[in-house]
Amino acid sequence: MWATTKVNRKLKQLTPESLAAQAADKAVEAGHRLKDFALDVKAGMAQREAELGEALGLDPQNDPAALEHRRFAALDHTKHSYNRNEDH
């Protein structure tokens, strides 16, 4: 009886619906991990940028040229997204 119950549980885990649900759960979990990683990287970049600005004696909040440069760099990056097919 124990073996039959165990086999039936395994068979239920291997149904297409169960496998799809398991895959969806794993994808959501991976998405959360990627988001957490991206937020950690962003925080680290901001911290390092602040450290470098302090070491160089820069105050980006009071430097309109630095803010304008960042704005144009961000806009330029969105215009020219990389297309790996263009290199072939």
Please describe what this structure looks like.
The protein has helices spanning about 1-15, 15-55, 65-80. By secondary structure, the protein is an all-alpha fold. The protein has one domain (about 10-80). The mean pLDDT is about 80.
How are the SSEs placed, and which strands pair?
Elements: H1 2-13, H2 16-56, H3 64-79
Please summarize what this structure is.
The chain is mainly α.
Name the average pLDDT.
80
Q: Tell me the distance between the termini.
A: 62 Å
Number of helices: 3
- SSE arrangement, N to C: HHH
Number of strands: 0
- Globally, the shape reads rod-shaped
Which consecutive residue ranges, at least 5 long each, have pLDDT under 50? none
Give the amount of beta strand, in percent. Answer: under 5%
Question: What's the alpha carbon Rg, rounded to whole Å?
Answer: 25 Å
Give the % helix.
over 70%
Q: Any idea how many domains?
A: 1
Q: Give the class from helix and strand content and strand pairing.
A: mainly alpha
- Describe the main β-sheet briefly: none
